[in-house]
Amino acid sequence: MAEVVLKDVMKNYGSLYAVNNVSFAVEHGEFVALVGPSGCGKTTTLNLIAGLIPMSGGDIVIGDRVVNDLDPKDRDIAMVFQNYALYPNKSVFKNLAFPLQMRKLPKAEIEAKVMAAAKVLDISHLLERRPRELSGGQQQRVALGRALVRDPAAFLMDEPLSNLDAKLRVAMRSELKRFHHNLNATVIYVTHDQLEAVTMADKMAVMHGGVLQQYDTPANVFGNPVNTFVASFVGSPAMSLIPLDVVSKGTEVALRSPEEGWELPLSPMNARKASASSNGKLVLGARHSTLKLHKSAAAGAAPGKVYTVEPTGDVTFAQIFVNGAVVNISLDPTVAIEPDEAVWIEFDQDRMHLFDGETTMALKAA
Known about the structure:
Layout: E1 4-13, E2 16-26, E3 31-35, H1 42-50, E4 57-62, E5 65-66, E6 77-80, H2 92-102, H3 107-120, H4 136-148, E7 154-158, H5 166-183, E8 187-191, H6 194-200, E9 203-208, E10 211-216, H7 218-223, H8 228-233, E11 240-249, E12 252-256, E13 263-265, H9 268-274, E14 281-286, E15 291-294, E16 301-311, E17 316-322, E18 325-331, E19 342-347, E20 353-356
Parallel strand pairs: 3-8, 3-9, 6-7, 7-8
Antiparallel strand pairs: 1-2, 1-4, 4-5, 9-10, 11-12, 11-14, 12-13, 14-20, 15-19, 16-17, 16-19, 17-18
């Protein structure tokens, strides 16, 4: 396996930049997930690494080679696609052997590599079957095996689980994670499902509008989002974002609702962050698990009105209107609330996030 490095990679179609100055490094043996909404540039980035489309600028390095001008077959990568791309009339053995036959390897070496890959993926008993005789999960393993037999420098995976049902997707996440662990493989994995990224990846590259927004471990992306887009994209339910004004009263700083007039006093640390806003406006961010609900007015709590209540068994999720924004909160199932009921939401000052109202970037204490 080898490292993969992108340096100021660009892809434009006239004035439209599908990928705009993207730079990140995937270390040897790392599992990196490219995540973001549809049209964010993640699949285009993967195709640029694979050499399936030409770059408009920048460099891509795989191992110790700049591969900008190399054909896909010469880049020493293996791709696993969304639709598996198996040959329907070939047996599993022949599907696995095909890329090795194209490289004109000796028959004995081909058989040894195929049998080794089949053993790793637990598909040895399926070698004589055709793809139509396999389940979705088994077909996925065959697609992985066909990539594995090549012993590539890196695996590139383009939403390989999206065609599976929800239960099988969860099972295959574990399989892919074990596959990576056993082989110490360098993997670049595209997905629109941020839960897949959080559960499997060593690092996440969050993209939006062709631009890399944040590149870090899933824990840091979740816990320290760099802007409101990352905050709202990573996490389920999404982080709640409330636009507020910054007001100062002597040495105290508070947040004021421009629509409803209530104020929320800030701790000294958050006051220093709020004071760094560029125009006196900011966005308050809070995860559902950091909020407390009160049935009556409480100190440090903001008034709201219940919109919807969603019981899920062991936890109840509610959406509350606060200053015109929808706030997600998780509750114990024994807490009884009704739509349109007046409630108050208490924010944890140690776990709230503050973002600049103009730039959308996370604020830091001066």
